[in-house]
């Protein structure tokens, strides 16, 4: 189908022009007291509905790759090497959990939403990662064994209840202070929200499971182990859509437990954040039986997320915070509905007057997205001192009657918005976990101390500045845009605020810089970043949370951007965007939950008339005449979220596209190439792991032979135009990579990870034209068929040699001897799966599949 776009037509409509100047600080240009909620619809469309089959397959892929790394990767060393973490270390990251060593307050653990566990041994002055070798780096809770703190338990999965959270693979245990970890089960729960250890018998552990929010299943409730996590039993279950969000033990009687349940599921069709099964429960027999708590609590209402706090010195004293859909003046949202207090262990509850206009607690303390906040915290030394963790932090010292703001207002960013955990120190100071990192409220100084220095920033986009090639730039979830490098890893400069997205730099004028915050809020600086002006005049229509734009390869004054149309601004002196396409988001090839928008676009390096654009609802368009007409080229592609489009660096007729969005049990990696302007498409996914692909990058000057993809578990590379793929590098954890760029001067691939800041990989070895004789000799072997059914044949090896076959658990399952130059190895006795073939005297090991 072809649409002809008449250039003399223009769009009529209202236009609000908003210009804002500010210095390069991290306050958002949309400086408002209404906090934007997390972009659930963006992530739900980008990822799709991730069912249990997807996570089982993903964990299997990672386990097999870990095994390959353990026994060294076969094939060319061109793919090996270390990723270098450039930072930032000071900008901030989403922290869910804090654990303080029970015998040494200088030993602090923090669990990140998707970046693993970091440890400090010096009171938070600096942190090091200790969980990188594991399958999953999304952390919900961490607990020290109170008697033997060398034993640490970690619950995986992001407990904050959003559909952009990382889902986990169960419980982990360390017996040496975090140096080594092993998975101890409950993988199918996917999100574990709380760990409780019996202080009288520390091998008795209780775990609260929220479950996979993308689907209804039985893997929810409360699980118990009495042997330190070796075995588990489910002891409490309500329904296949109801998980447990909070769990406490009476510190004076370990048989008494309290739990908060929560109705929470969703997919691209609907989302549930409250229901009739959200309640408080109590057990007095170590979890064998449970009863719903009443005594004045709202037991018949449809409730949202509930948070509980128990005073440890007198556990009869408890507080409970309830959420519900309430309009606080900015539209209906999940806000605090009631706060209750009991001093008789829950027999009777008193409602506290938080809605009283004189209480000082604002209705919108949870920002309208109360499902995102799971905790209230009581001072362990004062039963009347309570804090509510939300967008801001509010505190009462009289048991809930009068409240005051405990931290600076969120929009000052002195203390970051969105508070998730508090851990008290013995002197009355406390640590605070936020979406922007770790803070300390010093009791003696009565002051806030920023304790970032954790390289866990979640990057949406990265950028290359040709005028400063040794600096790296990016935009991040909740933490704006910034620049720096590893030499100043804890001194990166904040450039702009809000949620940060694409930055761009004029190739001709080093003073012209572009930056972007959520929903297409594009800003331009003409003085090298000292001040910025809004740069959106004429740019209309709904825009993606991560609105795509690009400076032209052929004219750096020309900027191309996408909303529901493609727009062009032709002068860098001022914004005056003109549409060059019709509306491109019609139809429902892929059922986007949010308003369909353009999600990605690319102008050809070879011809400025060629532009390709993709949408969140699966449409793909191309123009070969600078927008006078557009061809729909998605008809032969599977439906999905168009995550990345690229034009060829050697032929204007060749186009590339990656598709994410896993729905209808379609878990395939999806990367395609067309050699005929999109009329037909061929998959070049080959042996890519079956996880969503978020970005595609074609290395210039190599005739489309060297390709990179960023996906849900890292970066993969092909040096044969997509016929085969290898994981790039040896040390990047299994984390999402949303964006990639090339540092042209340093010949580095820049990866924007959504878990562990910006990382770079030197491409000198990968791009060398002549492979050494030594490397050719090392790879002069043949193993076929692979995958195999009954046997493999190995040839061109020195003999005699001993061999062994190792399974994914690292166990030897078959051994033998190669007695000739061409030898057959029988596999019929092995189960189907992946294995490592190890040959005596060889440094390399080789992956085989039966």
Structure description:
- By secondary structure, the protein is mainly β.
- Among the domains are: 11-16 and 456-773, 7 Propeller (Methylamine Dehydrogenase, Chain H), CATH 2.130.10.10; 781-849, Immunoglobulins (Immunoglobulin-like).
- It contains 4 helices and 66 strands.
- The strands form 17 sheets. It has a 5-stranded antiparallel beta sheet, with no helix packed on it. Strands 2-59-58-57 form a 4-stranded antiparallel beta sheet.
- The longest helix has 19 residues, at 52-70.
- The protein is globular.
Q: Which fold name is given in CATH as the topology of one domain?
A: Methylamine Dehydrogenase, Chain H
Distance between the termini: 45 Å
DSSP E strands, number: 66
Work out the strand percent. 35-45%
Q: Provide the CATH superfamily of one domain.
A: YVTN repeat-like/Quinoprotein amine dehydrogenase
Q: Indicate the CATH class of one domain.
A: Mainly Beta
Number of helices: 4
Overall pLDDT score? 90
Oligomeric form of this entry?
single chain
Strands of the biggest beta sheet: in what spatial order? Answer: 1-48-47-46-45
**Structural class estimated from helices and strands:** mainly beta
Q: Please state the overall shape, judged from the principal axes of the Cα atoms.
A: globular
Model regions low in confidence, pLDDT < 50 over at least 5 residues: 1-33, 769-779
């Amino acid at each position: 189908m072809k649409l002809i776009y008449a250039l003399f037509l223009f769009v009529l409509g209202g236009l609000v022009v908003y210009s804002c100047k500010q210095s390069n600080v991290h306050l958002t240009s949309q400086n408002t007291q209404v906090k934007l909620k997390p972009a659930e619809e963006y992530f739900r469309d980008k990822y799709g509905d991730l069912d249990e089959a997807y996570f089982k397959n993903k964990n299997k892929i990672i386990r097999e790759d870990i095994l390959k790394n353990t026994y060294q990767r076969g094939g060319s060393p061109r793919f090996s090497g270390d990723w270098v973490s450039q930072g930032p270390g000071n900008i901030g990251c989403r922290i869910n959990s804090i654990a303080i060593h029970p015998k040494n307050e200088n030993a602090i653990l923090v669990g990140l939403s998707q970046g693993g566990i970091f440890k400090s041994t010096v009171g938070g002055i600096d942190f090091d990662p200790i969980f990188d070798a594991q399958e999953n780096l999304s952390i919900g809770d961490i607990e020290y064994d109170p008697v033997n703190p060398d034993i640490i338990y970690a619950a995986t999965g992001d407990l904050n209840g959003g559909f952009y959270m990382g889902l986990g693979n169960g419980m982990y245990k360390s017996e040496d202070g975090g140096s080594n970890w092993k998975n101890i089960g409950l993988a199918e729960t996917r999100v574990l929200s709380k760990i409780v250890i019996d202080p009288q018998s520390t091998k008795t552990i209780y775990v609260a499971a929220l479950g996979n929010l993308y689907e209804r299943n039985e893997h929810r409730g409360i699980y118990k182990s009495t042997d330190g996590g070796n075995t588990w039993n489910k002891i409490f279950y309500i329904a296949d859509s109801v998980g447990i969000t909070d769990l406490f033990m009476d510190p004076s009687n370990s048989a008494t437990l309290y739990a908060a349940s929560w109705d929470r599921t969703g997919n691209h069709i609907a989302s549930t954040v409250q229901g009739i099964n959200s309640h408080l429960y109590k057990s007095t027999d170590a979890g064998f039986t449970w009863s719903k708590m009443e005594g004045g609590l709202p037991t018949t209402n449809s409730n949202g997320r509930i948070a509980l706090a128990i005073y440890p010195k007198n556990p009869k004293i408890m507080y409970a915070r309830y959420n519900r859909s309430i309009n606080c003046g900015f539209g209906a949202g999940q806000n605090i509905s009631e706060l209750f207090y009991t001093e008789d262990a829950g027999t009777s509850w008193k409602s506290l007057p938080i809605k009283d206009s004189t209480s000082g607690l604002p209705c919108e303390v949870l920002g309208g997205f109360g499902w995102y906040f799971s905790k209230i915290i009581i001072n362990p030394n004062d039963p009347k001192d309570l804090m509510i963790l939300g967008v801001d932090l509010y505190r009462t010292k009289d048991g809930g009657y009068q409240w005051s703001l405990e931290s600076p207002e969120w929009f000052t960013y002195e203390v970051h918005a969105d508070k998730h955990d508090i851990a008290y120190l013995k002197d009355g100071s406390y640590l605070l976990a936020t979406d922007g990192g770790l803070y300390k409220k010093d009791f003696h100084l009565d002051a806030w101390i920023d304790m970032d220095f954790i390289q866990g920033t979640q990057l949406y986009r990265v950028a290359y500045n040709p005028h400063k090639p040794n600096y790296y730039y990016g935009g991040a979830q909740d933490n704006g845009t910034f620049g720096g490098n590893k030499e100043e890893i804890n001194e990166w400069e904040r450039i702009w605020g809000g949620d940060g997205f694409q930055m761009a730099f004029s190739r001709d004028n080093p003073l012209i810089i572009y930056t972007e915050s959520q929903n297409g809020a594009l800003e331009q600086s003409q003085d090298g970043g000292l001040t910025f002006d809004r740069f959106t005049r004429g740019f209309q229509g709904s825009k993606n949370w991560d609105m795509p734009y690009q400076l032209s390869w052929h004219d750096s004054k020309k900027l191309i951007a996408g909303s529901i149309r493609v727009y062009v601004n032709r002068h860098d002196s001022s914004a005056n965007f003109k549409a060059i396409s019709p509306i491109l988001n019609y139809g429902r090839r892929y059922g986007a939950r949010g308003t369909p928008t353009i999600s990605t676009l690319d102008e050809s390096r070879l011809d400025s008339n060629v532009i390709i654009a993709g949408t969140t609802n699966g449409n793909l368009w191309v123009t070969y005449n600078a927008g006078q007409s557009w061809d729909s080229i998605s008809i032969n592609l599977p439906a999905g979220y168009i995550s990345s489009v690229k034009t060829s660096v050697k032929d204007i007729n060749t186009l590339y596209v990656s598709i994410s969005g896993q729905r209808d049990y379609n878990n395939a990696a999806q990367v395609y190439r067309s050699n005929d302007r999109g009329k037909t498409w061929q998959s070049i996914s080959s042996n890519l792991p079956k996880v969503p692909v978020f970005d595609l990058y074609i290395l210039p000057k190599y005739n489309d032979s060297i390709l990179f993809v960023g996906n849900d578990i890292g970066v993969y590379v092909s040096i044969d135009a997509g016929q085969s793929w290898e994981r790039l590098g040896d040390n990047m954890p299994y984390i999402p990579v949303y964006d990639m760029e090339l540092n042209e001067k340093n010949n580095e691939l820049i990866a924007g990870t959504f878990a562990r800041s910006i990382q770079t990989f030197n491409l000198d070895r990968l791009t060398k034209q002549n492979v050494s004789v030594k490397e050719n000799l090392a790879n002069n072997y043949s193993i076929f068929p692979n995958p195999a059914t009954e046997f493999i044949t190995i040839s061109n090896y020195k003999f005699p040699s001993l061999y062994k076959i190792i399974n994914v658990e690292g166990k030897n399952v078959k051994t033998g001897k190669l007695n000739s130059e061409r030898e057959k190895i029988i596999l019929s006795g092995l189960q189907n799966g992946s294995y490592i073939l190890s040959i005596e005297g060889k440094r390399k090991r080789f992956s085989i599949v039966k």
